[in-house]
Amino acid sequence: MLKMLGSVAISAMLTAGTSALANERAIIVFDGSGSMWGQIEGKPKHQIARQALRDMLETAPPTMELGLMAYGHRSKGNCNDIEMLVAPGANNKAAILQAVEGMRYLGKTPLTAAVQQAAAHLRHTEEKATVILITDGEETCNADPCALGTELNNSGVDFTAHVVGFGLTRQQGEQVACLAHNTGGQYFAANDSARLSEALSAALQATQAVPAPAPLPEPKPEPALPPATLEAPEAVEAGTVVDIGWTGPDSRDDFITITQPDAPDTKTGVYERTSKGNPLKLQAPDALGPHEIRYVLAEGHIVLARQKVELVPLQVAVSGPDSAGAGSSIQVGWTGPNSPGDYITVVKSGAPDTAYNDYARTAGGNPVTVRVPDALGDHEIRYVLDSSKRVLASKPLTIEPVTASLQLLSSAVAGGTASVHWTGPDNSGDYVTIVPKGAPADRYLDYARTSHGTPLTIKLPKDSGEYEFRYIIDSSKRVLASLPLVLMGNPPDSNNAESAEQVPPKP
User: Fold this and answer.
1) pLDDT tops 90 at residue 245
2) Are residues 81 and 134 part of one domain?
3) Which of 110, 338, 439, 449 has its C-alpha lying 20 to 30 A from 361's C-alpha?
4) Same domain, yes or no, for 199 and 247?
5) What is the pLDDT of residue 232?
6) Hey, how many other C-beta atoms are within 10 angstroms of the C-beta on 277?
7) CA neighbours within 13 Å on the CB side: how many for 338?
């Protein structure tokens, strides 16, 4: 975070005056962490910092001994990535600029350890020592900058740390301000480019050995954030709907979300607007482990309240028959989250989680009725979590062949009706129809559902020709049985009556 402020802070020390600072030694701790790629007014912060450093060094007394230390500039995720790039000495301007130009911005923010090493390098146990830290972020390596400030101050030596915080929240600023205050130094906050210039100027004056002018007026306190609270269980089954009680401003578009605990405040997981009611029903993510419930103020995307929640495994099971006829309907019992959209389906064994055939929503009750595919072999009954399409439980199911037969019980006259006896699986929607011989399987003329019993009455076509009765499995439109039929027209003297000749089915 020494970022843009770093360079300016240097200038602060440099222009304090040759007579006051000529014999002093100071180390600038320059932030090389990955956050330096963040932008201010459209430019990466590390570019702004380098230019500011260049401008400040132009005003530095040539006799002043300056050093440059950096952290986070060589590797990602390494809290030991701290390096003295330029040892304190006179006439180091060109070396410092060259070192900063060659830095990369990759890692974490071990600012506490960096300040401690800088102080040790300045031999703070024997001589006056000054460290200038400029940061746009808080400590990320499990160290306590406040405790370090107290330790250095209690050592009885003349050590001072000045800290410039750029773009920090109030809470983040407090975490680094104590490093300065506990050593007798000053903390300068800057939240925009104008305040940054003022803060850098004040930091410059603070590094002078002569008495500094009156401090800048304290910035006007930011308006207090509205209070908010959350009330929810400490543990929730993954993917289930949880009731979350809340208090808060309920401003337009405010929302409550569940996300990873280390996710940035601007990161939104599953959410619902507070306008949906209180308590708010929110479906937890299909994940496991520690998470965080957050009340977020829509304006500025500010988190007003947080609560930890542990997402735990679901208890899910399905029960049903071991085998079923092709295209039949089965009853499936289940235990599970019954989250919005969850469903039961029967698919081929080993099919992807996203595969489905006929299905029934768990919201429809327990047990549910599901129609199995018109197929044969190894299948499985599945409980599927709709939000992620993940299979939570399954049970093997063997689909077995089904047969059917048809028998004409009455004479068949063109334009009349016929009585047809049938046997078959009587699956939901199955029907008996009459069609021209060889018609596609999905063709039908008059028909009757098998659910009406047997025999069925079928209206016959008026035109003579070759036809066939068919038993159709409705789910697949597969012809399970057929019975050929020839309808013949009668002579004119019989009042144009038509008759039908039954053609026996082929063996």
Assistant:
1) yes
2) yes
3) 449
4) no
5) 93
6) 11
7) 10
Going by C-alpha positions, the residue among 11, 72, 9 that lies closest to residue 37 is: 72
| pLDDT winner (highest mean) among 6-20, 39-53, 172-186, 289-303 | 289-303
Task: Provide the residue range defining the domain that includes 272.
Answer: 229-312
The pTM of this model reads 0.48
Find, among 189, 140, 138, 188, the residue nearest to 161 by Cα: 188
Please list the residues that pair with 333 across neighbouring strands. Answer: 319
Alpha helical stretches, state H, 93-188: 93-101, 111-121, 145-154, 170-181
Q: In what order do the strands lie in the sheet with 65-71?
A: 82-89, 65-71, 25-31, 129-135, 159-166, 187-190
Residue with tokens 């405790």: 147
Query: Which pair of tokens denotes residue 360?
Result: 């029934």
pLDDT for res 423: 96
Asked if pLDDT for residue 174 goes beyond 60, the answer is: yes
Q: What angle do CA 253, 305, 234 make, to 5 degrees?
A: 115
Percent of the chain with pLDDT over 70: 83
Both structure tokens of 23: 């014999």
Neighbours of 473 (CB within 10 A): 23
Query: Contact, 320 vs 369, CB < 8 A?
Result: no
Give the C-alpha separation, 72 to 80, whole Å.
8
Task: Choose between 264 and 156: higher pLDDT.
Answer: 264
Q: Which two tokens stand for residue 372?
A: 């199995």
Q: Same domain, yes or no, for 323 and 304?
A: no
> Nearest to residue 260, comparing CAs of 328, 310, 226?
310
Output the CA–CA distances (angstroms, integers) from residue 194 to 10, 316, 486, in the order listed: 18, 59, 97
